């Protein structure tokens, strides 16, 4: 789904619009990436939680390490009802059931109004589609309708989708991790080669680099520098420049794209 992103410079605007949304909905459904539920949390969720109940969906469960996902569910459930899902498989009835349960005091004469929030690329559109299903219709003429968002009605649900917001104050490390996950653009924090090297270094220090190297039929060795791995990956995929040297930009780009989309296996980047 094509969508505007409320980028850092528009944080104030984003904040105002979400506050406007809060007055129109019963519950916020926040989407985070199960591979990094802390780093991919919405920067405004603390503020929103003061206005309306929040329920969390950890998306991309299929791309995360299952044992760590269970720990995250346990931890986050202390704050908000939390579900970890592979959104490609849809959403379970118990998620909608939970939304109705936590909003049981809403006016009964109307539908349950849900706002989906989250940073870019975490799976908001997929969740929206899974929630409303094929029978949904786009709703126009909502009183006090918030600009830049679309409402969809399906049965007893009215769901609104909102643009992703990134935290302008987020540090470099956060942006780097968001890039690895495909939630931020590489050119915000560096070039593909550097970001790929940083990813390899991160995986080495967290002890999971071997699993990634195996995907390229490479083995881990203590005394090897990560730059050597990137070069080997470049050779394996045929990313070469004239003269036979490795095109490290292309190798980096390839690695980052495959990693973000889970094609190199399941990796969880942070613990609760
Ligand atoms: N494997 C897997 N991929 C998912 C899952 N959820 C979303 N994706 C993929 O992640 C990408 C982003 O999903 P979207 O639903 O477009 O994310 P979004 O938050 O709406 O993105 P923006 O519009 O940029 O804010 C798409 O390629 C989806 O197919 C999931 O649970 N598992």
From TrEMBL:
One Gene Ontology term from the biological process aspect of the record: translation
InterPro entries cross-referenced by the UniProt entry: G_CP_dom, GTP-bd, GTP-bd_ortho_bundle_sf, GTPase_MTG1, P-loop_NTPase
Residues annotated for GTP binding in this entry: 164
A GO CC annotation given for this chain: cytoplasm
Superkingdom of source: Bacteria
Keyword annotations of the record: Cytoplasm, GTP-binding, Nucleotide-binding
Keyword Lipid metabolism: no
Domain (CP-type G) ranges: 11-168
Statement: the UniProt record of this protein carries the keyword Membrane: no
UniProt GO molecular function: GTP binding; GTPase activity
Cellular location(s): Cytoplasm
Function, in words: Required for a late step of 50S ribosomal subunit assembly. Has GTPase activity.
Similarity comment: Belongs to the TRAFAC class YlqF/YawG GTPase family. MTG1 subfamily.
Protein's name in the database: Ribosome biogenesis GTPase A
UniProt organism field: Acetomicrobium hydrogeniformans ATCC BAA-1850
């Amino acid at each position: 789904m094509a969508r505007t992103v409320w980028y850092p410079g528009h944080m104030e605007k984003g904040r105002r619009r979400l506050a406007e949304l809060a007055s129109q909905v019963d519950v916020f459904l926040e989407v985070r990436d199960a591979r990094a539920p802390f780093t991919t949390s919405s920067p405004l969720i603390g503020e929103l939680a003061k206005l309306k109940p929040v329920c969390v969906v950890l998306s991309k469960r299929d791309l995360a390490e299952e044992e760590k996902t269970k720990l995250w569910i346990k931890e986050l459930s202390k704050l908000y009802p939390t579900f970890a899902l592979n959104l490609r498989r849809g959403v379970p009835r118990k998620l909608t059931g939970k939304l109705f349960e936590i909003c049981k005091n809403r006016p009964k004469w109307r539908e349950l109004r849900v706002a989906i929030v989250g940073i870019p690329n975490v799976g908001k559109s997929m969740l929206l589609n899974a929630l409303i299903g094929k029978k949904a219709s786009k709703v126009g003429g909502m009183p006090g309708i918030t600009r830049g968002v679309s409402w969809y009605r399906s049965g007893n649900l009215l769901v609104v989708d909102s643009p992703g917001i990134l935290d302008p104050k987020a540090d470099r490390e956060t942006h780097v991790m968001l890039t690895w996950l495909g939630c931020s653009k590489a050119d915000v924090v560096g070039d593909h080669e550097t970001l790929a090297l940083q990813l390899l270094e991160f995986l080495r220090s967290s002890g999971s680099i071997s699993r990634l190297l195996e995907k390229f039929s490479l083995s881990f060795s203590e005394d090897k520098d990560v730059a050597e791995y990137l070069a080997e990956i470049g050779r394996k995929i045929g990313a070469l420049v004239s003269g036979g040297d490795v095109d490290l930009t292309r190798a980096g780009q390839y690695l980052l794209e495959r990693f973000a989309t889970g094609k190199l296996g399941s990796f969880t980047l942070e613990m609760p």
